[in-house]
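note to self — DONT lose this again. spent like an hour looking for the file last time. sequence + predicted structure for the chain T wanted, 317 res
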Amino acid sequence: MTSWSYFLGVDGGQSDTTAFIADETGRFLGKGVAGPCNHIESEGGRSRFISAIEGSVKEACSAAGLDFATVGFEAACLGFSGGPDDKKAILEEMLRVKKLVVTTDALIALIGATGGAPGMVTIAGTGSIAFGRNEQGKTVRAGGWGYVFGDEGSAFDIARQALRAALRFEEGWGPPTKLHPALLGITAAATANDLLHLFYTREYPRKRVAEYAVLVDQVAREGDVVARELIQNAAQQLATLTGAVRTQIFTPGEAAVASYIGGVFQSEILLERYRTLVEFEDGNRVTEPIYGPATGAIIEAFRASGVQVKLSLFPPG
C-alpha cells in the first residue's frame, strides 16, 4: 500500500545528482547520490538521466527505510542545471507523486541558500549566474550565458584571464606576473603559447581549465598584482550580476538577502571584495548559504503543497 506522507527534493547537476527525503513534519530521513543527469538530448543522455534519478532516489529511500517500489510522495521538487522543459514527462512516469515541481538548479540553490526567504543567490563555479525571487514570487536571472558569451567571474573565466595575462607578458605587451611561471609549472607547458593550444584539446575540458582558478588565487595571495586584480575583477563582475537581479525585483532600500554558492567564493580576496561591493547597496545583506540546493528543493516541495514546517535534522551544506 502506498503511503503519501513523504516529500522529495532532488538537485540534478553536471557532476552528480542528490536526493533528499523528508516526512510531513519536516524531519530529514535520507540522502542518495548518483551520477550527472542534466543533458537528456546528448548521446545516451536519457538513459543517464533515468539512472541518476532512480539511483539517487532509491538510495535515499533505502536510507530512510522506505521501499522505492511502493513509496509515494505528497510533493516533489527537482531542479536541473540543464533546464526542466524536457524532463517532466519522464519524471511523471518514474515517480509516484501528487504534486510535481520541475525547475532550474538556480531556483533550488536560492531557496536552500536563504532557507526559503526572498532574496538573491550568485553561483560561481565553472560557470556563473545570479538568480533572485521576491516576496511576490517574481523571479529573474542575470548571466548564465555559457563560457562563450558569459560566465563572468567564474572559475573558468578567472583561469582564462590568467592565461591571457601570461600570454601578454610572454609577448612583451603586458606587465610581469608570477602567473606565467606558475601556469607553466603546473601544466609542464614550455610556453604560454603552448599552453594556449593545450587548453584547446580534449584533455583540457572546461572543468579542468577552471580548476586553475585556485592557482590564480594562490598567486594573488602571494602578492602578485596582476593575479590580485584578476580576482578582484571577478568579484566586481559577480557583484554586478547580483546588482542586476536586485534592481529588477526589489525596490531601492528594500531589505534583501544576497547569498553565494560555488568554489570561486572559497577565495577570501574575492569574497571580501564581493561582500563590500554588494553591501554598498542600501538594503543588501550578504550571508553564507543556510542549506544546499537539495534542501532547497525539499523546501520548495513543501511550499508547493501548502505545508509549512520547520526543517529538522537537515544537513547544513
